[in-house]
Design goal:
Number of helices: 4
Strand content: 5-15%
Helix content: 10-25%
Shape: globular
Number of domains: 1
Distance between the termini: 14 Å
Radius of gyration: 15 Å
Largest sheet: 4 strands, mixed
Number of strands: 4
Strand order of the largest sheet: 2-1-3-4
Length: 138
């Protein structure tokens, strides 16, 4: 089991790191997409994995992760709450078997609405929720 996430890839940079004195918008939801041994590979046929990742990336910051250790649920997507969502008690939501464009669009709609802690989980996405793996104790 690999637990170290891969490099973060979030699309084009939007800040030079220079303080312009302007107000910053709150951090949006972040989407973690598993792309390792099973997720995002030919082991899940009939899915344009690159298009799925790019579609999500067009709407939210996306982090590509190594194996999240729930391979039987490939493709796995985790929606992390925004800062406002965390403040409201939102927790990351794990979604499995995200293998069609409708599911991807449902995730995007929820992220646009605010995601965990801000917007209720749409009924259709309830069908995709999975339990995160338990970490092995040392």
């Amino acid at each position: 089991m690999r637990t170290t996430p891969g490099p973060e890839r979030t699309g084009p940079a939007t800040s030079s790191g220079t303080d312009t004195g302007g107000a910053r918008s709150p951090a949006p939801c972040r989407v973690v997409v598993c792309r390792d041994c099973c997720c995002g590979t030919a082991k899940v046929p009939g899915v344009d994995h690159r298009a799925q990742t790019e579609r999500l990336r067009a709407e939210a910051p996306v982090r590509i992760s190594e194996c999240l250790d729930v391979c039987e649920q490939a493709n796995v997507v985790v929606v992390q709450p925004s800062s406002a969502g965390r403040a409201a008690g939102g927790r990351p939501v794990w979604l499995g078997l995200v293998n069609d464009t409708d599911a991807t669009e449902d995730i995007i709609g929820w992220v646009r609405a605010g995601g965990p802690g801000v917007a209720p989980l749409p009924d259709i996405l309830e069908l995709y929720t999975i339990a995160p793996p338990r970490r092995a104790s040392a």
